[in-house]
Amino acid sequence: MAKKDMMTVKVSGLKELDAALNGLDLDLRKKTLKAAGKLALKPVADRVKQNVPKDTGGLAETIRISATNDLRRLRKVKGKKAAMIASVNVGRKSKRLGVTGHQALAVEYGTSKTPAQPFLRPAISGKEKVVFMHFRKELRKGIEKSARTQYRRSKRNSKL
After folding, report:
1. Considering the domain boundaries, does residue 20 fall inside one?
2. 150-158: long-range contacts at Cβ-Cβ below 8 A with a sequence spacing of 24 or more?
3. CA 97-112-124 angle, 5° bins
4. Is the confidence at residue 31, as pLDDT, over 60?
């Protein structure tokens, strides 16, 4: 997908969750954000799997959800305030598999010889708010769980 076609959405109204998240240790904060991002995109990945053309089934096997806190990737985000990037990817998982990202693009957008069979864009189109609601819910759960973990850590470390 060309960079200009990349969907960027700003999430607002998460100030309380952000404050609670900043109260966590860095490792727990990163783990919580990544887990919430992956769980929020699970319904989108399921819709992509339903929509993907199933000629051989190879393309459907390469659908995966990823989330990263990598600073190199975060620096590329406009606005520079991103803490995590989550995405649904379709294409090669390893060099051994025959399906590549180019094939996924050819199916999504079509070629001069084959018509487009969009399966990614319809999976997310119009469902952005639902994804953010899932993200907020999963982030809240994750923060509560991580806060308990941090409390146990601090309690254990204070005994030493």
Report:
1. no
2. 150/24, 150/25, 150/28, 153/25
3. 60
4. yes
Which residue bears the tokens 């989550």? Answer: 86
Amino acid identity, position 150: Q
Provide φ and ψ at 67, rounded to 5°: -145, 140
Question: What are the backbone dihedrals phi and psi of residue 77, each rounded to the nearest 5 degrees, phi first?
Answer: -80, 135
Are 58 and 64 in contact by the 8 Å Cβ rule? The answer is: no
Identify the pLDDT of residue 1. 42
Q: What is the pLDDT of residue 23?
A: 85
pLDDT for residue 115? 92
Token readout for 160 is 């030493």
- Residue 81 within any structural domain of the chain: yes
Coil/strand/helix, residue 85: strand
Query: Based on the structure, what is the number of domains in the chain?
Result: 1
Establish if 22 belongs to a structural domain: no
